[in-house]
Amino acid sequence: MEIKVDKLSFDYQKDIPIEKRLINKLSFTIEQDKITVIIGKNGSGKTTLLELMNGLLKPQSGKIIIGDYVIDKKNTVDKEFHKKVGFLFQFPEEQFFHSTVEKEIGFSVDQFQYRVNEKEKRVKEALLLVGLNDSYLKRDPLTLSNVEMRKVALASILIYNPKVLFLDEPTVGFDEENKKSFLKLIKRLKKRYHKTIIMVSHDIEFIHKFADEILVLDNGKLITQGDKYEVFKQEKRMKEIGLTVPKMIQFSNLVYEKKGKKIGYRDEINDLIKDIYRYVK
Amino acid sequence: MLNKTFGRYIGKDSKIHLLNPKIKIICFFLQIVMAWISNQIEIQLVLLVFFLLLILQSEISFFLFWKPIWKMKYLLLGICFIEIVTKGFSTFLVVMIMKVVNIMLSSTLYLVSTKQKEIMIGIDFLLSPLNIFSIPTDHFSFLISNSILFLPTLFYEFDKTTKTLTCRGIDYEHSNWKEKFQILSFIIFPLITNVIKKADSMSDIMELQGFQLGEKRTSYLYYSFYLFDWLYLIYHIGFLIVIIKGVML
Amino acid sequence: MENVIEINGLSFGYQRKKIFDSFSLTVKRGVFLTIIGNNSSGKTSLVKLITGLLPSKNEVRIMGIPLNKKNAKKIRSYIGVVFDNPNTGLIGETVMDSLAFPLENLKYDQELILSMIADLAKQLKIESLLRKQVEELSGGEKQLISLASVLIRNPQILILDCAFTMLDSKEKERIYKILKKLHKTTPITIINITQDIEESIYGDEIALMKDGKLLIHDQKEIVYSKEKLLRIMSLEPPFMVSLSTKLGYYHLVDNVFYDMNEMVDALWK
Questions:
Q1: Interface pTM, i.e. ipTM
Q2: What is the pTM of this model?
Q3: How many independent structural domains does chain B possess?
Q4: Which positions in chain C touch B8 (Cβ < 8 Å)?
């Protein structure tokens, strides 16, 4: 399912001129089977954009095309859409209301009307997918740790196998170990399950480890789009809009700026060391 | 979606904003009484003009006052319809509608032009006679005025919960009555849980900042009485007397 | 040097979960300590135990005084905490209300309160925010005012509990600057609890906590060198430290550079 956004504009206040809107004539395309990360300082419109792309808000002008669906001023989405497009909100664990993990994860199965005899099997599969075992099934979701709760929330979305997955700050509050395991899961969802993943995050170092595409927002406008190197190369521009670039990139940029040596962009610090060694000698 | 800025304080330097909180709440109370007890169209009309003048004086955009009334249009039309069908058209119906409108204008004006601290001082003043019975009125005034600050949280949580449910396959519009009721229960639980969590978190912070309910505190804002306060009060009392006389005749 | 916080053999847990089992930690006056804890380290419970929001059995001493129910209120006045959620950290409708709140609780009079707010606003450069409503502020501004409402009481100990998790880099930068200045110019003790090891660069000492246990508490340079220990928590030393250490193996630099500019100059003299 390809995603295309075309001259999208939106604001909560109806009578604001387009130039001052929260989302301001935004146009971009998101490729399938890739992990796209949307970055921007707080207030740049990231969460609003996600909500628009899920049909939860109505644009004032422009449109969004996801697969066969068109979202604009006159058209919106139906229940079938939400089955194909999953949305993990920020702090999803705050929305639990079932007494067991099993019921919480299986909730959407009833809503989307799957065959009931498959439900138990699907719940177990979803749980396994996020790295939790059967022992969690009968537990009260509110007694779990924050990380476990978030995994349960994710499982409750993965159970209906959406083709597209929107994630809003999914690793906020995670320690390094949990971030690593989450990263593994995301990569697996992309490679093995061929899901298109769109994530909002402000953890630049973390993003650097897996993003295929990065979209940069500021004041509701698209500043730039491209692979991580193309985007992070523009360090000055990013700084102007309140963002940083990964430290390894900062270092390479600084070396080029001060000493004219093109060290190149690396993902691993050991590779960076090798480059530096070559250039110093 | 519910209006996010409902009842939020809009700061201006108008004469209405600068009113002494004690006088202001008394007059607000008198306004409600006046709108409630008069059953004559002429009086309701005069009250309407009076409130509109006060709104004008407050320098706050009239749109903010119109919005809550417009949102109630179906309810008002519904009442009209029922009345006309059962009892036929009457001036009483018009008076009733005008009462509702006037009370809403007066309430919105109070909420929108009064700081939370001023509301607290006002409620405390109104409840102070109960101190004779050793009732901790300062607890109530503090809690009531602070709960107004929770309105944005309530709207935010409601918004988030309904959006999450939509994404999980809940289709409110295409559900029957029984399902609609069930959906409300899905919303209520996380809503209440989250509001309580936030309140809990805030009370921890208040405790850490040295707050103890019931203990004496100072205030960085003090309110004096000015000429306009007394004129405002006298005018309201006079108006009320006239209305009471009119009702009794 | 006096110990401002002394935790000795602290045991604490809920019905089914034991969080701390004989936990000990000592913090000296004036230190800037970074506590890095994993998700199940109990760090938020620790903050609540230190401030008396959760009960302890004489296992916590603040400035030499054992903390108990009776003196919790007095001892709390020495400690200021900024929590992680910007949306619940401010009491009141406007920024002025939030800054005045703690001073009103101390029963200061109007003139004093207003002058203290004016002084602090000038110091932190937040004069333009004073008349704003709390709801209008961005997440970063809310945390900044939270910090201000804590500093206005001149606490001896400042604790930041994951205060930066919801901020973007510019907002973080602004608060780091204030912390650095505080640390340099006042005898305040700062404890920054975080999961991001990069933040530890601003401090003197580091304590690592995992699953309710203290793995190490030492000068930051020493902790950075304990790579095996860091790896237990899936951590690596901060970027500049790793870079300096590894370049050191090749004899390209001879000490740790925290500043990128200095390192670049050192590499290509």
A1: 0.90
A2: 0.91
A3: 1
A4: 133, 135
